[in-house]
Amino acid sequence: MEKFKSGFVSLIGRTNAGKSTLLNSLANEKVAITTPKTQTTRTAIKAIINSENSQIIVIDTPGIHKAKTKLSKTMINTAITEVGEVDVVLFLVEATAKSISDENLKILDTLKKSKKPCILVINKIDLVPKTKILEVIDAYRKEYDFSAIIPVSALKGEGIDELKEEIEKLLPYGPKYYDDDEYTDQSMRDLASEIIREKALKLLNDEVPHGIYVEIEKFSLRKTSKGKDIYDIEAIIYTVRESHKGIIIGKGGEKLKQISTYARKDIEKMTGTKVNLRVWVKVKEDWINNESLVNNKFKLK
User: Fold this and answer.
1) Same domain membership, residue 77 and residue 143
2) Same domain, yes or no, for 98 and 152?
3) Residue 112 contacts residue 91 (beta carbons within 8 Å)
């Protein structure tokens, strides 16, 4: 074990850069939900990548964006705080961007202050010509002395092995923090909650998603009358206003039924067990600006 490397890696970038997709690709498992909606990730989610010579713990942080609510401010604070507490930083940018955004300039400023080893990861290279990738590399090289620059397509898995190799080079020698069969620090209860939220984000109108969170009220395993395992899960989708409640439920309860059905199928895949899922919708007025609730629900893990 003398040559074994291990450590913590923060994945940071602006909203919708593809961080959650990259995290899942690195882990080769679904550990973070992915949707076309902005600000999908709300907390620091860990993916554990095990190999013969290393254990890499990658922390997916909320996307950097312009904060308008208490929830937004907490999310950004989560992302910025993680940079100072890890061994290596992955700074994810998009090959499709026309220039360095204000959010990415803010991240660069954080990196300069932290002085942490940082790998620039240029995502979505499958969407642009090679000349554009070279332009992005040149622009960012002028701003910061990166330890490495790796172009990838998180969606298609291109460049992922090269990225893992570069991360491993920068990690210190150390112990295994997690068992070999672990791929995330999230419990099945946490993952179930996030899966339900993911399905809601994908199926709801744009004005609703950021005003919801999901709470698991019951998560228990029992035997059926035929002696087979089944999980009983009860969840509540909380939203900020009464009008949104009707949108989530839908005409005749159709929308909520869709969300529940799609979520149940994914939870069954995750657990390898049949699932009895029941979901309700409740209103918690303007919870996204409730400081005590936001800090309790979305603080650093």
Assistant:
1) yes
2) yes
3) no
